[in-house]
Recover the amino acids of this structure.
């Protein structure tokens, strides 16, 4: 029988590190936070902390994975515009994680970067969930059906990611507004508020 004790302890410590990093980055930003602070929170030296990860970029990628897992737990399925708004609202309350997400998503274009595989899995999964929701809403007549849901899903993800990028340099932007505007544009003309553009 395999001895799992050290492995399980190692996984538990790795999880502790990731949760500490997630909390610290959310409050203080990841650029302004030394990994020594994360290590100290976990009663480790910096070399001890890095023992659990292949590189700093690997650690940061794993932080994003933990963030996404937590979001999936809180929002197991997209139930409508409020799901988008709630996720965007969380971003506004954790600017350090938005900063980390934007930076890592840009770096992930390099196939050799640790975040490349994460984003390669993340976007198809998110688009797939959005497509399912859009199809249901189209079948109900709640949103327009003249654009394929697969293309609309790409647009919705682009809006959500794009507004986060703009918000990092201009905090006067309300990140919920573009989500609300997209929902208005997707509504059939008969259901749009008076004065809304076609």
């Amino acid at each position: 029988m395999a001895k799992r004790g050290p492995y399980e302890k190692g996984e538990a410590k790795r999880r502790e590190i990731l949760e500490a990093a997630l909390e610290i980055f959310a409050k203080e930003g990841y650029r302004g936070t030394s990994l020594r602070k994360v290590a100290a929170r976990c009663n480790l030296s910096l070399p001890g902390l890095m023992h659990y990860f292949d590189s700093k970029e690997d650690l940061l990628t794993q932080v994003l994975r933990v963030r996404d897992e937590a979001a999936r737990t809180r929002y197991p399925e997209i139930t409508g515009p409020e799901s988008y708004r709630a996720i965007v609202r969380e971003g506004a309350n954790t600017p350090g994680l938005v900063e980390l997400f934007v930076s890592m998503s840009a770096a992930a274009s390099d196939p050799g970067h640790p975040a490349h595989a994460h984003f390669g899995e993340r976007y198809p999964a998110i688009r797939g969930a959005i497509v399912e929701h859009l199809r249901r809403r189209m079948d109900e007549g709640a949103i327009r059906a003249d654009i394929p849901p697969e293309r609309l899903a790409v647009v919705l993800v682009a809006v959500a990611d794009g507004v986060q990028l703009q918000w990092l340099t201009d905090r006067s932007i309300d990140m919920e507004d573009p989500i609300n505007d997209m929902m208005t544009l997707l509504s059939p003309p008969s259901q749009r508020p008076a004065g809304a553009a076609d």
Summary: The first helix runs from residue 5 to 28.
